[in-house]
Amino acid sequence: MFTYVFRRSTQSMAAVVALLVLVFFLARLTGDPAYLYLPLDSTEAQRQAFNELNGFDDPIYIQFFRYLGDLAQLDFGTALSRNRPAMEVTLEAFPETLKLATIAMALALFAAAVVGSLAAARPGGVFDRLATTISLAGASAPDFWVAIVAILVFAVSLGLLPTSGTGSALHWIMPIGVLMLRPFGLLTQVVRGSMMGVLSQPYIKTARAKGVARRRIIFVHALRNALLPVITVAGDLMASLVNGAVVVETIFGWPGIGKLMIDAIVRRDFALIQSTVLVTAVAIFVMNIVIDLIYAAVDPRIRHQQT
Amino acid sequence: MDKAEGASGPKPKRPAGPLRLVFRDPLAACAVVFLIFIALCALVGPVVIGDLATTPNFRARNLAPFDASMGPAYFLGADTLGRSLAARLVVGAQNTLGIAAAAVMCSLFLGGTLGLVAGYARGIGSTLILRLADVIMSFPSLLLALIVLYSLGPSIPNLILVLAITRIPIYLRTMRAEVLEVRERMFVGAATALGASHARIVFRHIAPVVIPTMLTIGAIDFATVVLAESSLSFLGLGIQSPEFTWGSMVATGRGYLSTAWWVAFWPGLMILLTTLSLNILSSWWRTYADPHQRWRLELPRRLRRRIQK
Amino acid sequence: MTEKNSLLTVENLTVDFHSAAGAFRAVNDVSFHVEQGETLVILGESGSGKSVSASAVMGLIDTPPGEIVSGRVTYRGTDVTRMSEERRMAFNGSKVAVIFQDPLSHLNPVYTIGWQLDEVYEVHGKAKGAEARRRSIEVLRRVGIPDPETRVDWYPHQFSGGQRQRIMIGMAIALGPELLIADEPTTALDVSVQAQILDLLKELQREEGLAIVMITHDLEVAANMADRVIVMNAGEIVEQGRARDVFAAPQHDYTRRLMSALPDESSYADHGIAKTAEPILQVRDLSKTFTLSPGLLRAPKSLRAVDSVSFDLRAGETLGIVGESGSGKSTIAKMLLRLTNATSGEALFHGNDIFEMDRAALLKFRRRVQMVFQDPFSSMNPRMSVFSIISEPWQIHPDILEKSRWRARVGELLEMVGLKPEHADRFPHQFSGGQRQRIAIARALACDPELIVCDEAVSALDVSIQMQIIELLAELRDRLGLAYIFITHDLPIVRNFADRILVMQAGQVVEMQQTEAIFRRPEQPYTRMLIEASPKPKWEQPKRIPA
């Protein structure tokens, strides 16, 4: 088990490094940051001085090695747009997104497991048709549009919920609702499909021949097997949950890492782009390892392969 | 089920083809009709009412939907410059679906080829391809697209390229998994034993078996790409004016939410209905393609009820 | 025929399966009865409806797509097909239990076997917690699982195939049912393990007074277990009676055809290959080592699948290679055809080492040596017509035959293997398993080979069809002077076909002799065990005293 986690971590680290390199060079392709940070009427000399100060005038490979050297000393640079250490800004925003994403994912998983299982228990029945249509709609809805319509209905027309920002518990409802929509839709589909597959497995026949009641077959015998592919998909969804977070945070003014990253990209804040990418990537890789461990906990065949 | 030896007898009744079956399922039938309608709009619509979409009409400024005073072209209302929303939706359909289709084809071709190589040839190259796919996969595609798009500059070709790149891993992984499975099948071994060359095995034996799966995935992925493009355009990094897609229409309308909700509402609804139709169809297709589940679509409902009692 | 106080009676049972092509009648007007303590064997080939009728007893038919059109199944006077869900659940497992083929897929992979056994007691309210566990361990001991206290916490994948079937049997007898339905319980198992499972079933029957309904396609297993036999074909009962009578004097045509598939025990293949003939193939010290994928901090493990195997094959000779699963017999075939590389050793084909051949030599070699694979369903590309499948060798080796003659030659080859020329435009899925194997043979014959390697070429087929394919191979051998390497796990099947037999175990040659000598005077204990493990008819067995 230890070997396995170790191997996964080294692989993930390699991927993080590859990603950082990619982002480093891509970010510098976006253009000269001096134009954004100095007044429009700034002179060539002023821009020169600005770039010299921030080290943007050196050849790109020198900048890159300097960046690597700084990284090794855990120096992540200064966020030009805020005049603060980039990592500090990033780590302030990160927990906000983490809370939002974790709650949305947990709710989506739970709802999907229940709805998907019940739908698969009677394929073609009324509940199945309803659940399939709703979950497909959830997976198909453009989240930014749902967010806008939700604001229009619940905040503007009905005045029930605040339009944006943080603070009270009411502020959480719309962001979480919008964010969990897509994972819920996709996961319900996966649970239903996987459950139907499992229910046609021979060991379900054995359970029926043993005299196990239907409800117990679905929720005890089948669900644990049906969850295996769901866990994998949930892992892949973690990355796309950040996609949703970017949109949701932008619309609802949520001070998370997604909003921060958009700001950083638009303002050519290289250090901030890099630190947000680093934190997001590391978080996703940690999440992936956790998911592998959960998988191993649920499936003994995987567990024994590793030892 | 093994028939007795001897010439295999004729089938008793020809099973209904997918086209006839799809119309037995009301939901799937609606999806097909809607998609055909949208495709027609995208193909011929801009030629017919393209002018309406770009000509400002001050008499129709912020015209509410279902107002008959300006004629049928304005039944969905008009935007702040008085342009017919219905006409703009039709033109937007062409851009939205065209970009998505181009992106799907690019990623299908690139991902499929890379996956074929990674699955058939084992070696350093294929490991590298896989690792790269893992990196792309495990990072939020929207952020990746934002960074790439911002550095290359937003334009339609770049948009297509970015969307294609973020979806390549899907095809690559599926193709590789399929090829790994198919190449272990015995007919590949049989062809090798006959002396078939690598090219012959790849193009004559493996490709025809895996291509239908890839096309199915492409059709399913189309909805995801439409959504991704809409998000990018909504965030302002996708398509740039004067060109527009449904996603950028929602972004424009967002500013007039309290005065003219319909400007943002209709294009979003179109995105939802299009992706929903695609997903309904692909869910239907999964049932149809699964030999254990297909009977659910084929048996008339009356018979199913009688048996269930 | 039905007796009043039978344990189980099935009357006029008819079951349909619905699909778009219409209703398929799987079981048609089937009636039988089972008496206390007896063994009734339902014998039939695939698609005969034998499993469906047993599933009806347990209420395991999915409706829809299945439909029980008519009939009654009564257990001690109560109709079980009309039971409520709750009564059905109480009935299943406690009165009647069932075991299946392929125990691995019939055990839930994510729970320990102890959990799955305890559940039997718990859902029927017989015992709970520690008491259930105590009884589970007892049952495991009963069915011969060594060290049950430890293994009760193992998962299904940690056991061998034979042990898993023992666990299934344990789960079935846990509540002491009166009737056990065994659906092909030994089909996936090696012949030596099969013998042990059959013995266990008989022992349990003797001690618990269990009635057994055994469903099988295997004539020898049927003869070994049965008191009475029902023969089914295409959903109908064609013959029934005392096992001994049915086997000795079958009445129905179908039964007679089936029985003729039993190997003739009095004769051996001998078609006079001169012992002095030049060998066409000389295999010396052939070995194959598989390296199991190493972990980062783990030393790679290696598995010696084939270990220094040597043999000769003369022109026109048939060599049977016999071994149980994991003996390395199929790996030999793959190496000889260069489908996988040998680790060491040499194989000289007309004096040239197969493993040293360059591209051109290899291409030439592949015209002269062909292979027929086990599974006729996957050995042909589903998207190619029969014509393109058979003519593919000529596309690869264009000098064999000019294109204008292809169609005529495909027709000739199809006729040679007992099919019709007009079958050339059909696709593989339109044929039955036996027919597909004929097409595969036609493909192998397309480049006039000297040697055909058959890897379990008949294992996936029904018994009566197995015999037909072997007869076809024998006839082609006599007509075309072919040599065969015939690889199989089934020793009796090569009795009337192979000139010599090579017995393998765990990658090594156990012994190699003329066929008659192997059967009459086996030198090694393993060979003797293989011969004796084939089930003997019940009426010929000495009454055994329990140890």
Automatic annotation (TrEMBL), chain A:
It is a multi-pass membrane protein. The chain crosses the membrane at residues 100-121, 142-163, 169-187, 226-252, 272-298. The keyword Membrane applies. Residues 94-295 form the ABC transmembrane type-1 domain. CDD domains: TM_PBP2. Gene3D superfamilies: MetI-like. It is found in: Cell membrane. PROSITE patterns: ABC_TM1 (PS50928). Coiled coil: none annotated. GO terms for cellular component: plasma membrane. Pfam families: BPD_transp_1. GO terms for biological process: transmembrane transport. Keywords: Cell membrane, Membrane, Transmembrane, Transmembrane helix, Transport. Belongs to the binding-protein-dependent transport system permease family. This is Peptide/nickel transport system permease protein. It comes from Tranquillimonas rosea.
TrEMBL record, chain B:
Its main location: membrane. PANTHER family: D,D-DIPEPTIDE TRANSPORT SYSTEM PERMEASE PROTEIN DDPC-RELATED, OLIGOPEPTIDE TRANSPORT SYSTEM PERMEASE PROTEIN APPC. Residues 93-282 form the ABC transmembrane type-1 domain. It is a multi-pass membrane protein. It is found in: Cell membrane. The lineage of its organism: Bacteria, Pseudomonadati, Pseudomonadota, Alphaproteobacteria, Rhodobacterales. InterPro entries: BP-dependent_transpt_permease, MetI-like, MetI-like_sf. The chain crosses the membrane at residues 21-49, 97-121, 215-239, 260-285. GO terms for cellular component: plasma membrane. It holds the Pfam family BPD_transp_1. Keywords: Cell membrane, Membrane, Peptide transport, Protein transport, Transmembrane, Transmembrane helix, Transport. The keyword Transmembrane helix applies. This is Peptide/nickel transport system permease protein. It comes from Tranquillimonas rosea. Belongs to the binding-protein-dependent transport system permease family.
Automatic annotation (TrEMBL), chain C:
Keywords: ATP-binding, Nucleotide-binding, Transport. Gene3D superfamilies: P-loop containing nucleotide triphosphate hydrolases. Its main location: membrane. GO terms for biological process: peptide transport; transmembrane transport. Residues 8-259, 281-531 form the ABC transporter domain. GO terms for cellular component: plasma membrane. It is found in: Cell inner membrane. SUPFAM superfamilies: P-loop containing nucleoside triphosphate hydrolases (SSF52540). Pfam families: ABC_tran, oligo_HPY. InterPro entries: AAA+_ATPase, ABC_transp_ATP-bind, ABC_transporter-like_ATP-bd, ABC_transporter-like_CS, Oligopep_ABC_C, P-loop_NTPase. It is a peripheral membrane protein. GO terms for molecular function: ATP binding; ATP hydrolysis activity. Belongs to the ABC transporter superfamily. This is Peptide/nickel transport system ATP-binding protein. It comes from Tranquillimonas rosea.
